[in-house]
Amino acid sequence: MKLDKFDKQILRTLQQDATVSMAELSNHVGLSHTPCWRRVKRLEKDGFIQRKVTLLNNKKLNLGVSVFIYVSLKNHDETSLNRFEAAVQDIDEIVECHTTSGDRDYLLKVVVESIEEYELLLKSKLTHLPSVDHISSTFALKQVKYTTELPIKG
């Protein structure tokens, strides 16, 4: 499905504020209410809009330590990869998991309260993930940029 300028403007607006009313959204993008509503429903049905969420302030929740972790696995067969990927789903502190190219297999992002909490997580869960060979952790010192908005062109 090809997106036109109205679809893209709807997506940009909803990325900034998913709570905007349909009346405000339609006014903002220059469509009447019903066509705008139909476009939003189509964008949802076609998977462009996955879900609407509330973004939380991690520091207010005392979750101010972000750790980026490269993981290398011992085995690279399909079963080992699937077991690892299933296991990371059960660890709440892992907020992102990406497969990567190069000599490392995965990049994880972990959010915790403290370095001590990360050490406990590392010892009790991360090193016990299936097929883990090597873990390399890097602590974020300061978040320079943060956005949840994708760069929709056009």
From TrEMBL:
Report the domain of life of the source organism.
Bacteria
List each copy of the HTH asnC-type domain by range: 3-64
Per the record's keyword annotation, is NADP included, yes or no? no
Q: List the SUPFAM superfamilies hit by this protein, alphabetically.
A: Dimeric alpha+beta barrel, Winged helix' DNA-binding domain
Q: Which is a Pfam family this sequence falls into?
A: HTH_24
Q: Does the keyword Glycoprotein apply?
A: no
| Keyword annotations | DNA-binding, Transcription, Transcription regulation
Gene3D superfamilies listed in its UniProt record: 3.30.70.920, Winged helix-like DNA-binding domain superfamily/Winged helix DNA-binding domain
Q: What InterPro entries does the annotation carry?
A: AsnC-type_HTH_dom, Dimeric_a/b-barrel, Tscrpt_reg_AsnC-like, Tscrpt_reg_AsnC/Lrp_C, Tscrpt_reg_HTH_AsnC-type_CS, WH-like_DNA-bd_sf, WH_DNA-bd_sf
Q: What's the protein name?
A: Lrp/AsnC family transcriptional regulator
Q: Which organism is it from?
A: Pseudobowmanella zhangzhouensis
User: Lineage of the native species?
Assistant: Bacteria, Pseudomonadati, Pseudomonadota, Gammaproteobacteria, Alteromonadales
